[in-house]
Design a protein that fits this description.
heterodimer, A: about 230 residues, mainly alpha, 7 helices, elongated, B: about 100 residues, alpha+beta, Arc Repressor Mutant, subunit A, 3-stranded antiparallel beta sheet, 4 helices, 3 strands
Chain lengths: ~230, ~100
């Protein structure tokens, strides 16, 4: 098979069908390169949810056969969360290297980013307010994780709206369903529901995005080879 | 075929136009990142870019980040329209619905 790169200086033209194919391939190639980090981020979050909430569940989910010490479970949960945030931030920034968007888009991105912090603090404040009004520690164990997961689901939907990302819309709606369903399983099974529901949701999206990107790449290289 | 814009109707420049049009409406990209997205040599890329700039299809913004000079490139409105027209012409030549 003779694969020939497009003429070295790119000055010549091909026939119309091949030129149109070139446009489509190049667009796909760029899309693929710009999104190459997505499967990694999504998988990192999948692991954080699955293992993180799984650890919280193991505090007394399998008692008396097995019990993960509470401080250890919380430490793992927090570490995984921080790790996923770090992976998202680093890869997100890396993917945007050498690019500058319109100020309107930059504003949307900054507001979106800050909303994660503001919203999380608001949930903590709301929880404190509920405790002040007599929410028990048992109920707080339900309230906090569910409130954060609900909030995350809404934020995913918001990101879908801002950046026209349909998979994020699906993930967001799925996250809301998981959040609303989890409390009905009672404490501590709700942690298991969050671990499996959220974690598997993310991992499924990770696999889907990986497969999508690989197909995209395969199509581009196949075409490049065919049109040598 | 005569209707095809000669500025765009070359593999190298068509790929550049396709790449820039994939980015958002007012998105700008640096020269090295564009080179990476295209997998093109710097010499080739700058030759093609000069032609696109001369045609008014690409605007070049030379600025500084700290002390290092940075060149940002972006499709002009005219360039975006020319690219859309070019693709539409291709499709009609091929008998496709736009």
């Amino acid at each position: 098979m003779t694969t020939q790169p497009p003429a070295s200086d790119g000055e010549n033209a091909l026939d119309p069908a091949q030129m149109l194919a070139l446009v489509e391939d190049q667009k796909r190639s760029v899309e693929g390169q710009l999104a190459s980090f997505v499967p990694v981020i999504v998988t990192a979050w999948g692991i954080a949810w699955l293992v993180g909430f799984g650890c919280l569940w193991l505090i007394d989910g399998l008692a008396p056969a097995f019990a993960l010490p509470l401080p250890l479970a919380v430490a793992i949960f927090v570490l995984l969360l921080m790790g996923a945030i770090a992976v998202s931030a680093v890869l997100g920034i890396r993917s945007g290297r050498g690019m500058r968007g319109s100020s309107a888009e930059a504003f949307a991105g900054i507001v979106y980013g800050c909303t994660w912090t503001i919203g999380s603090l608001a949930i903590v404040g709301f929880g404190a307010g509920l405790s002040f009004n007599g929410m028990s520690a048992e109920l707080a164990n339900i309230f906090y994780p569910i409130a954060f997961v609900l909030f995350a689901g809404i934020m995913y939907i918001l990101s879908a709206a801002l950046w026209r990302a349909v998979p994020m819309l699906i993930l967001g709606v799925w996250t809301l369903i998981v959040a609303v369903a989890a409390p009905f399983f009672g404490m501590p099974t709700h942690y298991l529901v969050l671990a499996l529901g959220g974690g598997l949701g993310f991992l499924a999206l990770g696999v889907a995005s990986f497969v999508y990107l690989r197909r995209l790449r395969a199509r581009v290289t196949r075409r490049a080879a065919g049109h040598g | 075929m005569d209707d095809l814009d000669p500025v765009i109707h070359a593999q190298g420049r068509l790929r550049i136009m396709a790449t820039l049009s994939t980015l958002g409406d007012a998105d700008q990209v640096t020269f090295p990142r564009l080179q990476e997205l295209l997998d093109m040599t710097a010499g080739n890329l700058s030759t093609h870019l000069r032609k696109l700039e001369d045609a008014g299809y690409v605007s070049v913004d030379k600025t500084h980040r700290g002390r290092t000079p940075v060149t940002y490139l972006e499709l002009t409105k005219q360039g975006r329209r020319a690219f859309e027209d070019y693709v539409e012409t291709l499709r009609s030549v091929l008998g496709q619905q736009p």
